[in-house]
Amino acid sequence: MPTLPPSPWITRFAPLVRAGGAVLDLACGGGRHTLLFLDRGHPVTALDRDPGQAPAAAERIAADLEDGSPWPLPGRRFAALVVTNYLWRPLFPHLLAALEEGGVLLYETFARGNEAFGRPRNPDHLLERGELLRLTAGLTVVAFEDGILDDRAVVQRLCAVRGEAVRRL
């Protein structure tokens, strides 16, 4: 079972995901967002190097996304993609291709300036100012934040939709 509660950002925008639509929880860790979407009635694919901590009700896929292996979900489309506390820039073309029309991208990770608060400090794992908007160009932005979170981290958060249709919260 997940030890952390789901991110308030992800919880806030979860209602935008098409009812019953498939969700990909990328770099799922303990599965806190996998569980959130399972509880909302979505089939969830939990992808991680070690997805064994994700809820058993999910489709669990073990894959190292950074070792140069091919994208493990070719041709699959999702109503939502959820990514938190993870950044591997080469994945963005795959993520955008995996988002179905009307699909929701929910992304939240660390940004430059986080070095003052702790890990991660490596610039390879920190977004530059506005970088998340640039990496997801072509999607319709519903909400975006870039700044200090609770005096403990610097993050960028994005909720964006493929296409024009945005459902009410």
Percentage of residues assigned to helices: 10-25%
Low-confidence stretches: none
Question: Which whole number gives the mean pLDDT?
Answer: 91
Distance between the termini: 28 Å
Shape: globular
Strand adjacency order, main sheet = 3-2-1-4-5-7-6
Number of strands: 7
Structural class: alpha/beta
State which percent range the strand residues make up. Answer: 25-35%
> How is the biggest beta sheet arranged?
7 strands, mixed
Total helices: the number is 4
Order of helices and strands: HEHEEEHEHEE
Please, what is the oligomeric state?
single chain
Over the alpha carbons, how many angstroms does the gyration radius reach? 15 Å
Textual characterization of the structure:
The structure is a single chain. With 169 residues, the protein is α/β, with parallel strands linked by helices. It is 15% helix and 30% strand. It has helices at residues 8-13, 32-39, 92-98, 131-135; strands at residues 23-26, 44-48, 59-62, 78-84, 99-110, 140-149, 153-161. Strands 3-2-1-4-5-7-6 form a 7-stranded mixed β-sheet. Strand 6 and strand 7 (153-161) form a beta hairpin. The radius of gyration is 15 Å and the shape is globular. The model has no long low-confidence stretch (mean pLDDT 91).
